[in-house]
From TrEMBL:
PDZ domain segment(s): 289-342, 383-482
Signal peptide: 1-17
Name of the protein described by the UniProt record: Probable periplasmic serine endoprotease DegP-like
Primary location recorded for the protein, binned into one broad class: periplasm
Pfam families linked to this entry: PDZ_2, Trypsin_2
EC numbers: 3.4.21.107
SMART domains attached to this UniProt entry: PDZ
Family note: Belongs to the peptidase S1C family.
Broad class of enzyme this protein falls into: hydrolase
Encoding gene, per UniProt annotation: degP
Cited Gene3D superfamilies: 2.30.42.10, 2.40.10.120
Amino acid sequence: MAALALAALLAAGPALAQRAEPPADGQQPAGRDNPMRTAPASFSALAKDKLPAVVTITAAGEIPAQAPGEMPGGPGAPPFGLPPGSPLEDFFGEFFGRRGPDGGGPRPTRALGSGFVIDPAGFIVTNNHVVENADEIEVAFPSGDTYQAKLIGTDPATDIALLKVETPEPLPALAWGDSETAEVGDWVIAIGNPFGLGGTVTAGIISARARDIGAGNYDDFLQTDTAINTGNSGGPLIDMKGEVIGVNTAIFSRSGGNIGIGFSVPSAIARSVAEELRDRGFVERGFLGVTIQQVSPEIAAALGLKEARGALVSSVTADSPAAQAGIETGDLITTLNGRPVERPRDLSRAVADTDPGRTVELGLLRQGRERTVTPKVGTLPRERQVAEAETGGESGQATLGLTLAPLTPPLRERFGLEEDTQGTVVVGVAPNSPAAQRGFQPGDLITRANQSEVTSPEDLQQAIAEARKQGRDAIVVLRRSQDGALFVPLPVSPRQTG
C-alpha cells in the first residue's frame, strides 16, 4: 500500500472558477460566454460550506519486501506507473531510493490522505494510491466522528477509489461540477489533509488543462497552482460554484512540498469512474487490441507526413477487434467517428469510454492512402486495464550504429526467439550511436522500415537508400523487444550520422 510519504507526495490540486457581473458600461470582456472572472473578497463562505464533506483518510497495511534501492514494481521501475522520461520520475526515484540500507522485509505502514463525500448515504471518493493494499481504512470527519470504511472498488488506471461508511445520519456531500467548461485562469480551492493537519483550505487558479504527466494512458490532468502538499491526495478541487471539478492526485516537487505545480483528475473522468465503481465494483472499458504511440516530428518527417498528429499502430493483438477489422501495424489512425485523433491518448480515452459491442468508424492512413475501418469494440480485460489508448553472415549498418543479421536457428536460440519470428535481428550496437541513443540492444528485432516489411538486413539497407533518394533525413523502424513493439525514428543522412 502507499506509504505516508507517498500518499502525501502524490497530491495535486485543480481549480475554482469565479464569475463577476459585467461592467456597468455594458462592455463585455473576451472569453467563454464573455464572463468576467475576478478574485472574490473572501473564500470563507465557500470553505465553510464545503469543509464538512471533506474527510481525512488513514489506511493501514503492509509494504512488500524490496531489494536495496528497488522501487515498487521491480528493479528500476518508477512508482505509480510512471514510464522512463516522465517529469516526475526523478523525484519519485529519489524518494524511493531512501528506503533504508537493505530494503528489509514486509513492514506495516500507515498512509494519510484525503477524500470527500459524494452521497449522503456514505460514499466517499479518494485516490487509489491512498488506500491501495490497505487492510484497514479509517475515515475522520471535521466533526471529530470517525468510521471504519469499506473499499467498494478501485481503478488504478485513473487513480480513483470509492469507499463506503455506515453512519446513523445522512452525511453532508459535495456535488460534481463540469471540468470540461473550466478554463485556464479560473479560480479554484482545494480542501484536504496536508501533512496530517486536516481541514486545510488553499486557493489558486487553473494553470493548464489536459496535462499528460506520464502516469498512464488516460492522463488528462488539470494543473493548478493551488497549494497541494503531502496528504492532499484524494481531496476535492472545487470551483467558485462550489462544485467538484477535480480530484487532487499528484504534485511536481523535489522536496515533497508545494511549488505551485499540482495535478488533479478532472471530474469528467472521476465522476464516471466513481459511478462505475459504485454500480459494479470495477470499471469496464472498451478494447480495440492495438498498441499505439505518439507521432513525433522525426517520425512524421520520415513517413512524409505534413503534421505530427494521430496514433501510430505499433502492434495488433491477434484475434482482437482491431485484427478482425483489418487494422495493421504501421497504420496511422487519424479519426474516430469523424472526430480528429490528435494524440494517442485521444484514441485511448475515446475507445475506453465506448460501450463494448458498439461499432466505431476509424479513419486511417496506410502507405499514404486514406482508409476507413469499422471495428466492433470489445471489453478490455480487467487484469490489463490499459487503453490500447508495445550464425549466419552478419551485415553491418554503420550509419545507424547497428550490426544486423538474418534470423538463423543459432541466433533464435541465442536470443530466445520463437521459430515463427520474422525480421532481422540486432547482434551489435555501437556505443553512442544513433541506435544506442534510442535504446536498441542485441536481441531486438527490426520487422518494418517506413511501413515496409523487413526480413533481412538487405531490406533495411534498401529502405535507407529509398529514404535518401526521397531526400528524407530519417527512417522509421519497428523495433520488437522484450518490452513490446515500438516505432523508432533513426537518422540516415550523412550529416546526422557522421
